[in-house]
C-alpha cells in the first residue's frame, strides 16, 4: 500500500497579519487529485480562530501541487492549500478567499511579491553590516555580484521549487534595498492567484529554515529611513479591460476607485502599516489620496504603456497593496470596485 504525504496549509487568525500554518496528513494510495483530499480539522484555539471550549475548525482543500523538496526523500508529497471553515462548515471570519466574487474566473491577477531576507544571527537584512547601514540604495536593484546581491542561493532555490511545484512564476529580481527581493506570479482566476502566492510564500519560509534566514514581509521593516518599502503590486484585468479598445473604459474603471470611502476600503485590506510605505516617496502615492496615470509609478494605479500601445486593451496595476497583504482580500476588494464602475 503506497503512502503519500499531504501538507495541509492554512492561514491563522492572527492580526494584523495572518500567518501560515501547516500539518502533515498521511494517505494511502493517494491519487494526487484535489477532489480526493478530505476535509480535515485542527485546534482553532491555538491559532486565534476558536475558543478553547469549542475549538474545532475545519480545513477545506482548494488547491494542490507537488511538494518538490519532500518528494526528493522518496515518498510522494503534496502541498494542499486550504480554506478555514468553522465547526458548522461555514467560511471562518478569517477566510479571505471565501469573499472573492469571481466564480467565472473572468478576473486575472498578477502579483509582484516583494520581501526582505533577514539573517537569524543578526536580525538584519542580508548584506547589512553589524553596525549602521550599507551604502545607499541604487546599485542593488537587479544587481549581480557579491557586493550588491545578497541571498541569491535562497532565491534561486525558491524559484526552482516554485517551478517544480507547478506554480506560474513569471520572474524574480533583486529589489532596490539590500537583501530585498521579488517574485511575480500570474493566474487566470483571482482565487488561484491567491492560492499560488500563499504556496510560494510557504515554500520561501520553509527554505529559510535551512539557512537560518527568515522572511520579513513587513512593508517598511527599516522604519522611517530613505530605504524603499516592500509592496505586492496587483496587476489585474477582466474582459472589459482586456477588450476595451478605448480610453474611456479605463478612465471609468479607475474613477470607480476614487471616492474617499472606496480609498479607505482598499487601504483597510492592503496590508498593515501601509501609511509608513505609501508616503508619496519611493515610487508610491500617498495612502489617503487616489491618482492614476499612464506609466506613472507614483500613482495609486498605473495604466501600463503596453495597454495603451495595444489600443487600450490590457490591464491595470494597483501599486498600493503591500508585501504583507492577503492576496485573497486584495483581489476581493479590487473585483468589487471594478464591478461597480459605470462603463
TrEMBL record:
<dbReference type="Pfam" id="PF03951">
    <property type="entry name" value="Gln-synt_N"/>
</dbReference>
<dbReference type="GO" id="GO:0004356">
    <property type="term" value="F:glutamine synthetase activity"/>
</dbReference>
<dbReference type="GO" id="GO:0005737">
    <property type="term" value="C:cytoplasm"/>
</dbReference>
<keyword id="KW-0436">Ligase</keyword>
<dbReference type="GO" id="GO:0006542">
    <property type="term" value="P:glutamine biosynthetic process"/>
</dbReference>
<keyword id="KW-0963">Cytoplasm</keyword>
<dbReference type="InterPro" id="IPR027302">
    <property type="entry name" value="Gln_synth_N_conserv_site"/>
</dbReference>
<dbReference type="InterPro" id="IPR008147">
    <property type="entry name" value="Gln_synt_N"/>
</dbReference>
<comment type="subunit">
    <text>Homooctamer and homotetramer.</text>
</comment>
<keyword id="KW-0547">Nucleotide-binding</keyword>
<dbReference type="InterPro" id="IPR050292">
    <property type="entry name" value="Glutamine_Synthetase"/>
</dbReference>
<feature type="domain" description="GS beta-grasp">
    <location>
        <begin position="4"/>
        <end position="89"/>
    </location>
</feature>
<dbReference type="GO" id="GO:0005524">
    <property type="term" value="F:ATP binding"/>
</dbReference>
<protein>
    <recommendedName>
        <fullName>Glutamine synthetase</fullName>
        <ecNumber>6.3.1.2</ecNumber>
    </recommendedName>
</protein>
<dbReference type="InterPro" id="IPR014746">
    <property type="entry name" value="Gln_synth/guanido_kin_cat_dom"/>
</dbReference>
<comment type="function">
    <text>Catalyzes the ATP-dependent biosynthesis of glutamine from glutamate and ammonia.</text>
</comment>
<keyword id="KW-0067">ATP-binding</keyword>
<dbReference type="Pfam" id="PF00120">
    <property type="entry name" value="Gln-synt_C"/>
</dbReference>
<feature type="domain" description="GS catalytic">
    <location>
        <begin position="92"/>
        <end position="343"/>
    </location>
</feature>
<dbReference type="InterPro" id="IPR008146">
    <property type="entry name" value="Gln_synth_cat_dom"/>
</dbReference>
<comment type="similarity">
    <text>Belongs to the glutamine synthetase family.</text>
</comment>
<dbReference type="InterPro" id="IPR036651">
    <property type="entry name" value="Gln_synt_N_sf"/>
</dbReference>
<dbReference type="InterPro" id="IPR027303">
    <property type="entry name" value="Gln_synth_gly_rich_site"/>
</dbReference>
Amino acid at each position: 500500500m503506497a503512502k503519500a504525504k499531504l501538507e495541509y496549509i492554512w492561514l491563522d487568525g492572527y492580526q494584523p497579519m495572518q500567518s501560515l500554518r501547516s500539518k502533515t496528513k498521511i494517505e494511502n494510495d493517494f491519487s494526487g487529485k484535489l477532489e480526493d483530499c478530505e476535509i480535515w480539522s485542527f485546534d482553532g484555539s491555538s491559532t486565534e480562530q476558536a475558543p478553547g471550549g469549542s475549538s474545532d475548525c475545519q480545513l477545506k482543500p482548494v488547491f494542490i501541487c507537488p511538494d518538490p523538496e519532500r518528494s526528493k526523500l522518496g515518498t510522494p508529497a503534496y502541498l494542499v492549500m486550504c480554506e478555514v471553515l468553522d465547526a458548522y462548515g461555514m467560511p471562518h471570519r478569517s477566510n479571505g478567499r471565501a469573499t472573492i466574487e469571481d466564480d467565472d474566473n473572468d478576473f486575472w491577477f498578477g502579483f509582484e511579491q516583494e520581501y526582505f531576507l533577514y539573517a537569524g544571527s543578526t536580525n538584519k537584512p542580508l548584506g547589512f553590516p553589524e553596525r549602521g547601514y550599507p551604502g545607499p540604495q541604487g546599485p542593488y536593484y537587479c544587481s549581480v555580484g557579491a557586493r550588491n546581491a545578497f541571498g541569491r542561493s535562497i532565491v534561486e532555490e525558491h524559484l526552482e521549487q516554485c517551478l517544480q511545484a507547478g506554480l506560474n512564476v513569471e520572474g524574480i529580481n533583486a529589489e532596490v534595498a539590500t537583501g530585498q527581493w521579488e517574485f511575480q506570479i500570474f493566474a487566470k482566476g483571482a482565487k488561484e492567484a491567491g492560492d499560488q502566492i500563499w504556496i510560494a510564500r510557504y515554500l520561501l519560509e520553509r527554505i529559510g529554515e535551512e539557512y537560518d534566514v527568515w522572511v520579513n514581509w513587513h512593508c517598511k521593516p527599516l522604519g522611517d529611513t530613505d530605504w524603499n518599502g516592500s509592496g505586492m503590486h496587483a496587476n489585474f484585468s477582466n474582459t472589459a479591460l482586456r477588450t476595451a479598445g478605448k480610453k474611456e473604459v479605463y478612465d471609468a474603471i479607475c474613477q470607480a476607485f476614487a471616492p474617499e470611502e472606496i480609498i479607505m476600503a482598499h487601504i483597510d485590506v492592503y496590508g498593515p502599516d501601509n501609511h509608513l510605505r505609501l508616503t508619496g516617496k519611493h515610487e508610491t502615492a500617498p495612502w489617503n489620496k487616489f491618482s492614476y496615470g499612464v506609466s506613472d509609478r507614483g500613482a495609486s494605479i498605473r495604466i501600463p504603456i503596453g495597454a495603451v500601445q495595444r489600443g487600450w486593451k490590457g490591464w491595470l496595476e494597483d501599486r498600493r497593496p503591500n508585501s504583507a497583504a492577503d492576496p485573497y482580500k486584495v483581489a476581493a476588494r479590487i473585483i468589487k470596485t471594478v464591478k461597480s464602475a459605470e462603463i
